[in-house]
Amino acid sequence: QHIPCAAAESQLARKLLQERLPVVLTPPIKGAAKSLVASAVGKWTLAYLEKNLAGVPCTVYRSKDRNFRYWDDSKNDPGFGAEQPTEKLAMSIADFSAHLRRATASAPTPPQAAPQAQGTGDSIEGECSADGGKDG
């Protein structure tokens, strides 16, 4: 199934999301005032997340080599073998905070946070560009 690409603030994106259909959100339309994550930058601090996600189970991906690749064995029907450098954990935001503080205290340099989808942006952008990535 082809999943359409749409600029984050476009009418097509809004329509697909309202219809609960899958869509790959791309950066906003050129000249738009906001970026896809502008409202979260600076707001979603660890303290903010601890306050607002208390009691909510969180999925955390841990990687020894700082490379994060998404992998879901439940969607691997053919049973392809793949060594995954990441580990998927479930924990509270308080536990995540404690792990992060311990790791930061013992690390020679502060660790760099990596979003879950790191490394997929270029390939998604390429796929969207290949089919035009247009709003309809």
Side by side, the strands of the main sheet go 1-2
Low-confidence stretches: 110-122
Overall strand count: 4
How many individual helices?
Answer: 4
State the end-to-end CA separation.
17 Å
Order of helices and strands: EHEHEEHH
Q: Please report which band the strand proportion falls in: under 5%, 5-15%, 15-25%, 25-35%, 35-45% or over 45%.
A: 5-15%
Largest sheet: 2 strands, parallel
Number of domains: 2
Mean of all residue-level pLDDT scores:
74
Helix content: 25-40%
Overall structural class, as computed from helix and strand content, comes to: alpha+beta
- Write down the Rg: 18 Å
Silhouette: extended
What are the defining features of this structure?
136 residues; alpha+beta; two-stranded parallel ribbon; two-stranded antiparallel ribbon; 4 helices; 4 strands
Could you give a quick summary of the protein structure above?
InterPro entries: RmlC-like_jellyroll. With 136 residues, this protein is of the alpha+beta class.
Write the layout of secondary structure elements.
Elements: E1 5-7, H1 11-18, E2 24-26, H2 46-52, E3 58-63, E4 86-91, H3 93-106, H4 121-130
Parallel strand pairs: 1-2
Antiparallel strand pairs: 3-4
Region (Disordered): 101-136
InterPro entries: RmlC-like_jellyroll
Provide a descriptive summary of the structure in words.
This protein has 4 helices and 4 strands; from the N terminus they run E-H-E-H-E-E-H-H. With 136 residues, it is of the alpha+beta class. The longest helix has 14 residues. A two-stranded parallel ribbon has the order 1-2. It has a two-stranded antiparallel sheet with strand order 3-4. It has 2 domains: 43 residues, no CATH class; 75 residues, no CATH class.
